[in-house]
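User: For documentation purposes, I need each entry recorded in a consistent format: the amino acid sequence on its own, followed directly by the corresponding structure tokens. There are two entries in this batch. Please keep commentary to a minimum and don't merge the entries.

Assistant: Recorded as requested. Entry 1:
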Amino acid sequence: MMQIKEISINDKEYPKRLRYIKNPPEILYVLGNTKILNDEGIAIIGSRCCTEGGRRNARVFAANI
């Protein structure tokens, strides 16, 4: 069974790019592989009024993850 891990902003596992945003979270709670926290990534954020092109792009990005 996986355990939730607490990572503080002072830990070496804390994501490097997240440290430098305005008001970064002091603590992250992580379930899973913490080694991927500094890998490249993409976020897909929903929209109430999405265009068909936006839907198509989201499907393509999500399929390739």
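Entry 2:
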Amino acid sequence: IPLSSLFAASNLLPEEDNLWALWDRLHLRYEVKPLQESGNFIKLLENNSLEPLEKLITWGEVKEAQREVSKVSMTTEVIETLRQLRDDLKRAGFEPSERRFAESLQIIKASAWLKGRDTVALEDIRILQHVMWNRTEDIGKVERIVLELANPLDRETFNLRDKLVGLVKEYD
């Protein structure tokens, strides 16, 4: 049976080698932290309905979106940036599989399509910050590597944040 999508949640990441093949096939990865603000906890309790959610999109619309995404074209600049990303991640001690990179192309194309474009742009690789990490402690490092390549403003933002953190430590 062809698998169209899979959503998974876990309190633990794989520790054993036999689960890494499955983990590698879960493309978009998000760490969901517990609610921090009491107001959000109250909203959760107030809106905890067991009624089925209303369908937002039909299966036909999903299939049509997939067809349209497949028509989005890649650019040489993005392909070269992905090569640079692979090198930068490797230098930092991270080695996402070739499969992960190849399958991320559809995610990048979907990013462009959702923004109304038929060609990818460098900013579309931003989504890979949620694709290229394996362990939660690496999220920040991978995020920085991806975002610095995706947008020069992100690089400057990280540099300013680092300076600010340094100044705060100095002040303390």
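Summary note for entry 2:
The mean pLDDT is 89.
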